[in-house]
Predict the 3D structure of the following.
Amino acid sequence: MADLITPALAVSNLVIRRGSSRVVSGVSFSVPRGGSLGIVGESGCGKSTILRAIAGINQDWDGSIEIMGRRMGHRRNLADRRTMQLVFQDPLAALNPAHTVDEALREPLVVHNMPNHEQRVMEALQTVGLPSSVRFRFPGQLSGGQRPASASRVRCWCSQSCCCWMSRPPLSMSRCRQRYSTCCPSCGATCSKPL
């Protein structure tokens, strides 16, 4: 029963520094399992900085970050990284122009030593509503609508991450998120900042 009460994400008194300056000060929030949170603010107020601290990219922070009831340290191990994915603002920048969509989707499967690459890639494409024809295309060959879906968003599903941190999710992500939550019952939180 306690497992259902434990939030997917709990941030308490988060302070983030850049050099000697505090760029985020005293931020606290929690997100229930299967829930979502939008962080709204002016450009440069620290929204993406908070996401980078949660994901373990920014390690210069104080406070408490708990994911699925487990307190996170400043460094993330491979198991921690598997449970979460950060979806960057620019989907084209998130994709290596020299790799096909297939290679981008297989990468987390190889890194995390997950089985059934072929099946997972095909299911992931189908889940987010992409035709199988995009699988062997390069990022430059994708439409503007296909890039965000094929970037980190499909990788979240493919690697069965529990939490997906999105920076500027497009409105069309509501469909993808519904499918993601349906296909992954252990889905945690989607922490995002609106357009």
User: Anything to note?
Assistant: The CA atoms of residues 131 and 177 lie 18 Å apart. The radius of gyration is 17 Å. The beta strands are 9-18, 21-31, 36-38, 61-67, 70-71, 84-87, 163-167, 190-193. The first helix runs from residue 2 to 5.
